[in-house]
Amino acid sequence: MDMYLTTTDHIVRARGILLLGQIMSHISFKWLDVNAITTLSDFFTSRLSDWQALRGALVGCLALLHRKSSVGTIMVADVKRLVEAFIADVQVQSLAAADRKMCFEIFSWILDHYPEAVKTMDDELLYWICQSIDEEKDPECLKLSFHVVEVVMKLFPDPSGIADQFASDLFELLSKYFPVYFTHGAGDNLGVTRDELSRALMHAFCASPYFEPFAIPLLLDKLSSDLPLAKLDSLKYLDNCIHCYGADRMVTHASAIWFKLKEVLFSLSSDQLLSSGSPKDAENNKNQIISEAEHCLKTAVTYIHSSDRDIFINLILLDEDIVNNIHSVTTEENSIGSSLQALGSVVSILAGSSTYLCTRVFQAHFKRLVDILGNSAGFDSQHLSIANGSSPASINYGALYLSVQMLSSCREVAVASLEGVPAEESWWLILEEKLDQIIHLFGKLLTIDSQPTQSAVRKECVSFAVKGLLILATIPEQCSLLLENAYENILLMLTLVITSKYENAHLWRLSLKTLTSIGSSAVELHASKREMVYNRIVVDKIIRLAESCDASMPLNLRLEACFEVGTASMNYMLRVARSLEETVITNISQLMEV
């Protein structure tokens, strides 16, 4: 093929070199010795300066790089010469899209599989990468170029290295593509989706802590956009950047991050978002953004810290808006709204992040919330009677909601801890102090009479009271011996509902599901003492209910109760099944005798 590879006829030469490159692609599984590979590498590398035959050279280079070690691979020294030739001879942005894609594929492969070939290079490498990426618009090329930036920045972690020097230039190029907008139609068959492209750009943003001074201000600024896509991507990128940049760098942005997240969580409405869809689409966008903001806040609370570990939690707990919101929702009866939900999310995220943060939140608010809840309905914790009713109009829904959210978070902390809560940690001590009071309050709320004009409020109050009892009954028993009595009291309350409050379908089924969840939790946590108590209080009573000839409670409800409780554990189900079998046989025998 010599004459076709060196002829002065550029058309024939280009076809000859392309043919050789394609042959190399098709024989990539055939063994070649080192000398042959080096000779081919030198040839294709030398052809990179021949712009009329460049495509064939690119195909050949890529084929050599893709060879596996079992059939002979290109040497690192050859790869280094290839990179140097690229830097000297290839102007990527002057090429067609297909050729640009091959250039990025070659560099991406080199950086992934031959990093030692470029680690010793100077700033010419980064300068060439900047030039090659600048003004790129093809989606597939962009995806590859973002990966090139990601990998090359990770190869030079030295603070005084070339990555640090070029961070500003590289990020300026990346920032032009954020957020990623896809203007191509669905039928364009581009081979890359908007989500894939956005994910590749996000990984490039997170590739190096040297991007932090440029990335964080950009992301926070884009959070103010009216476009749902910009807000969502900003939150996703911010979440990942917090992970990757490290606490020392992120702590300087703590205040700005909190204020932007607070703005999204408390002030965002679907009317603020530009949308070409229906109002339902706008509402879905809002919910997505809020969910992403909550996730980002949890990441920030977990990862942004310094020698003063209180820096981020103090920003939140001492925030004037948070203080005012808590005061507002706990002084307005039946305060159900987005502000309360946002406040509950913030409190829950804080308290659920660690034992220390849970303690801080409990110290700041829990006692007061329980007292407000008790006082709002005129409850006296020493004289509560489960037989008496109460009006839902007097219940402070805000205090109830926030109390249950905090309990849910402390349970998460307790379950996540492999050992019992240390004595010096005080969140559990605060809960112990209010444990009897709050259990009695929840029990009292179960007795709220159904009032048609306030049925929605009643159901909300009852649902949260039952949820609170479920949380308390499923906190690991190693937290405190006091939980033994509390556990029994909760089971007795809920079982009483099953046996005597079946006229209230909502409360009855809610209590039954809760009893089942409590039983399952005892089995999952291998709490043998609790399993014994559950058998004695719940399973025994439900079995007696099924065996009873008392027709006051419908048979279908008795059977439903047996089935639901049985699903909590195989042992419980066996007990229920045997009891039902014996009851059926006994009844049939009695009928036969008659």
TrEMBL record:
InterPro entries: ARM-type_fold, MMS19, MMS19_N. It holds the Pfam family MMS19_N. Its main location: nucleus. The keyword Ribonucleoprotein does not apply. GO terms for biological process: DNA repair; iron-sulfur cluster assembly; protein maturation. Residues 1-266 form the MMS19 N-terminal domain. Transmembrane segments: none annotated. One of its GO terms (cellular component) is cytosolic [4Fe-4S] assembly targeting complex. It is found in: Nucleus. Keywords: DNA damage, DNA repair, Nucleus. SUPFAM superfamilies: ARM repeat. The keyword Membrane does not apply. Coiled coil: none annotated. Key component of the cytosolic iron-sulfur protein assembly (CIA) complex, a multiprotein complex that mediates the incorporation of iron-sulfur cluster into apoproteins specifically involved in DNA metabolism and genomic integrity. In the CIA complex, MMS19 acts as an adapter between early-acting CIA components and a subset of cellular target iron-sulfur proteins. Belongs to the MET18/MMS19 family. PANTHER family: DNA REPAIR/TRANSCRIPTION PROTEIN MET18/MMS19 (PTHR12891), MMS19 NUCLEOTIDE EXCISION REPAIR PROTEIN HOMOLOG (PTHR12891:SF0). This is MMS19 nucleotide excision repair protein. It comes from Triticum turgidum subsp. durum. The lineage of its organism: Eukaryota, Viridiplantae, Streptophyta, Embryophyta, Tracheophyta.
